[in-house]
Amino acid sequence: MSDYSTVEKKVSYGIGRQLGDQLLANPFDGMDIASVSAGLKDAFEGSEFAVAREDLDVAFKEISARIQAQRAEQSKELAAEGEAFLAENANKEGVTVLESGLQYEVITEGSGAKPSKTSTVRTHYHGTLTNGSVFDSSVERGEPAEFRVDGVIAGWTEALQLMPTGSKWRLFIPHNLAYGERGAGGAIGPYSALVFEVELIDIVA
What we know:
By secondary structure, the protein is an alpha+beta fold. Helix content is 39%, strand content 21%. The longest helix has 37 residues, at 53-89. The chain is elongated. The termini are far apart. Keywords: Isomerase, Rotamase, Signal. InterPro entries: PPIase_dom_sf (IPR046357), PPIase_FKBP_dom (IPR001179), PPIase_FKBP_N (IPR000774), PPIase_FKBP_N_sf (IPR036944).
């Protein structure tokens, strides 16, 4: 067992763990931790590069290209999953499909005014991925959210302008009307179709 009895050794170990966590968050197939350790050691000892810089440049470019290709393939798969879900969902009774690709289902039809693009609204919502995983929910937090209609994702902006106040709709949003190729945070991946239950409580302004 290694000795971490001194403050210096503890901090040194902590730095190594932080570097390890960073590498683990962005790994590539074939990453060799022994070679990583050798590179760290050589850097601190001021040793000559064990691999020629030109060879390093070529290797970095090759690995970068592999990672980009893998991400592109994963994105295609995610996009295909969302498209398949929406294609099947479009055939369900009660689902309306708009020209933009946005789909909605009326749960409760309100009778109040419809907001404009620049209105500020108060809503309750419950957002999930197509597999049912919850990524955000004002309902679960127990507190409605207020925002401008044009300050949210395009699918919401379009739907809210069609909703009379007091309505509750279920929205099925394709990735191009949601967070697109980038996704959002760790919960919403690239090219993800999203499902929201949205209750339009009030037009605030």
